[in-house]
Amino acid sequence: MSGSAPAEPSGPAVTAAATPSWADSAGLAAGAIAALVLVSAGLLLSQIDLALLAMPLLVSLVWARDRRPDPTEAARAHITLATPEGEQIAYRLGIDAPPGVEGIVLRCTLLAGQEHELVVAGPSSGEVTGQVPVLHSGPQELVRLDYRLLGADAAAVSFPPDPLIAGRVLSPPHAPIHRLPLPHRLQGLIGTHESARIGDGGDLRDIHQFTAGDRLRRIDWKATARRGRTAADLYVRRTAALADTTVLIVMHSRDDVGEQVAQWSRNIAAEKGLSALDVAREAAGSIAAGYIRAGDRVGFQDLSSRRGMVPHGGGARHLWRLLRAIEMTEPAAVAFRRRRPPIVPPGALVYLLSSFLDDEGVQLALRWRGAGHRVIAVDVLPAPQFAQTNRYDRIAHRIVLMAQRDRIRTLQAGGVELLRWPQDDARVPRLARIEQLTRPPRSGSRAGGRR
Amino acid sequence: MTRLGFSPPLELPVAGARVPGYAPRAALVAAGTLLALVDYGATGWLIAGAALSVAAAALPRYAVGWVLILFLAAGRLGAHTGLDWRLLVLLAGLHLLHILALLCMQLPVRSWIQPAVFAAPVRRFVAIQIPSQLIAVLALLLLVGHEGHRELSAAALAPLGAIALTGLGLLLFGPRSGPRPAPR
User: Fold this and answer.
1) Which residues of B touch A131 (CB under 8 A)?
2) Does one domain contain both A417 and A351?
3) Residue ranges of the alpha helices (H) in A334-429?
4) Is B155 in the A-facing interface, judged by CB distances under 8 Å?
5) Which value does ipTM take for this structure?
6) How many other C-beta atoms are found inside a 10 Å radius of the C-beta of residue A135?
7) Phi, psi (5° rounding) for residue B167?
8) Which terminus of chain B, N or C, has fewer Cβ atoms within 10 Å?
9) Domain boundaries, chain B
10) pTM over 0.80
11) Which range marks the domain in which residue A151 is found?
12) Would you call A244 exposed, middle or buried from its count of C-beta atoms within 10 A (0-12, 13-18, 19+)?
């Protein structure tokens, strides 16, 4: 964690008001029975000291019963989150309980995992502040507040109302990428990439004999003097046309397993470490930003979501739309079976971001590849950590990973290129791996990947 | 920072909560054991008292705390009725056990507690104990003869009952300091 202090909680608070239902503590009845037994024993056995011992118990019970909070008054709870800055988010919570409440039992759950219980004096809890670490990107529950109210001597207790939940959608980090792969054929008419077509804007393509349609100012007089055999032989310098490209980023957000293998079944956000969706969001955001900044058109589709596709587009405003859609991706509890695969524009480059723990993404990628698209499969499964795992966990992980590698081999055999996004291999950095993909493919034209 | 430490963990929300949740239970065990020692002396009953104290702290929902109160009160059965410091200690101790047992029932053992949570119970404890001790001293001086044990009859309890009824009536029907439910 860095030492930077998080911002003060501000902005709109998550607020809830509820009228608590009160119940007597079982201790009230137990105390009354004990006191009555003492008084009865004192009378029956003619011992005043036993009756005297019951006296403070009886008075205390009557007093506690008399000071029971008003059951018709509501309690108000609020949580305020600070703007995410650095690696922690500050939060502030408070409860205003009805008069007569002497204690408030707070259960504060951070990141849906870590629970802290506090007992504060009532009726107003005052400001309870804390910090929640930023461990993941995307929509997430940051603070959950459950509370119970205690009357005098904890003789009256309220039932806990519905929990108050404060969440945020956190942006993933973005890695700057300057060189990105291009599709086999560029079909756009404007842009920054040099295409195979003859036109304006690009570098020298070749020197060719003058034909109808060539502009006179393109005549290369030196080449004409060198090559021309007759006075009618003219040679022109032809340049390549510039074009843009269309990229479709497809994210398969069905699984969100973390790097801690021991947490694959429990999947507690606070303990699972870097997750596959964290990596996928970072990769998708970085790829989208890289292409949009180069003037290309990018679309986005989440395979596990019922939301529609973000259509292809360019420009800064479209980039914000894409990044927001990427931030909002979250694992789906129920598999979404789509009737047809997302429609890919002709000549588009497809990125499929997935952990490849199931076959759905594989089939789609092979179908797109079969239709002639260049498809890059981005493996977003983070490098495993085996803390707190036993032998059986490791064997299970090995079996799952063998199946994943089989799927990746199937993809590669079908002509899908592979990019592993997590920075787990120090020998080949991520940018170098992307650089390898920008080299012109053997089967394609020269519009392979120069930027 | 472990739960057994006396400092709250760093990730705990800041609310001035410095008392660990097991402190009321530890106080219940300590008070119960000490009262058993005062009441029964260093006999085998002391072990039973300590065991009940531990059970009351470990299983507060089973109301073992009030069993402990009855167990300690039973120690007075064979004792000489008279003005005795042990009785006065027991008078305060049983009341303290009652409050601690009530608190242990509701305060989570893994929580951290603001010291101010105990302020109101302590104020009430003192407010009840001062008159209780005075009444106990007066009752023992007035109702027990100088020559020794005098049998208590229902008639002898009448003045005490009248005082107690007056006090309870004042508490129930007198001016309330707490909130009153809204009329329906």
Assistant:
1) 11
2) yes
3) 360-370, 391-413
4) no
5) 0.80
6) 20
7) -65, -45
8) C
9) 19-173
10) no
11) 1-20+69-170
12) buried
